[in-house]
Amino acid sequence: MDNYSTTIELKATAEKIYEALAHQIHLWWSEWFTGASAQVGDTFTVRFGDHIHKTIRIKETIPNSRVIWTVEDSLIAIPELKNQTEWIGTTIVWKMEQKENSSLLQLTHVGLHPSVECYAICSGGWNQFIGSLKLFLETGNGTPYRK
């Protein structure tokens, strides 16, 4: 199965990308952020209103290189979806690579593939928030979900 994956080039250092993933999720993904996201074993929850949330555990961190998250709990309570917990048990892998004047960031969501019911909605969501992360890293102002 082809998992959702995207790679973007950023006018930011790998160190800055790592900081955004470890300490600044509320500035590009969702302002409804609780928990900790910096060290292996930390857990955090992001919410998108009252009906969508994800609780994620940090599985691996290699500063300025890779971050791996596992989804421990998730609810996407929208009427279009029969299976509203499809993210549970999936893995989100962030890889960053420093180039001369930019960095590459690859996001792979292992378990989010075209046969998953929420694929169209969820891949669209990732595209939106990867755009927000790019804006945040390049301008200082992302477009996270706002409370």
Overview of this structure, please?
With 147 residues, the chain is an alpha+beta fold. It has one domain (5-139): Alpha-D-Glucose-1,6-Bisphosphate, Chain A, domain 4 (2-Layer Sandwich). It is 21% helix and 37% strand. The protein contains two helices and seven strands, in the order βαββββββα. It has helices at 14-23, 119-139, and strands at residues 4-10, 32-35, 43-47, 52-62, 66-76, 91-98, 103-110. It has a seven-stranded antiparallel sheet. The model has no long low-confidence stretch (mean pLDDT 97). This is SRPBCC domain-containing protein. Belongs to the AHA1 family. Pfam families: AHSA1 (PF08327). InterPro entries: ASHA1/2-like_C (IPR013538), START-like_dom_sf (IPR023393). Residues 11-137 form the Activator of Hsp90 ATPase homologue 1/2-like C-terminal domain.
Number of domains: 1
Classification by helices and strands: alpha+beta
Based on the structure given, which CATH architecture is correct? 2-Layer Sandwich
Number of strands: 7
Radius of gyration, in Å, reads 14 Å
Principal-axes geometry comes out as: globular
Unreliable runs: none
State the end-to-end distance: 35 Å
**CATH level 1 class label:** Alpha Beta
CATH topology, by name, is: Alpha-D-Glucose-1,6-Bisphosphate, Chain A, domain 4
Helix content: 10-25%
Share in β-strands:
35-45%
Average pLDDT works out at 97
Full CATH superfamily name: START domain
Instruction: Characterize the largest beta sheet: strand count, sense, and whether it forms a barrel.
Output: 7 strands, antiparallel
Order of helices and strands: EHEEEEEEH
Read across the widest sheet, the strand sequence of neighbours is: 1-7-6-5-4-3-2
- Work out the helix count: 2
Domain Activator of Hsp90 ATPase homologue 1/2-like C-terminal: 11-137
InterPro entries: ASHA1/2-like_C (IPR013538), START-like_dom_sf (IPR023393)
Protein name: SRPBCC domain-containing protein
Family: Belongs to the AHA1 family.
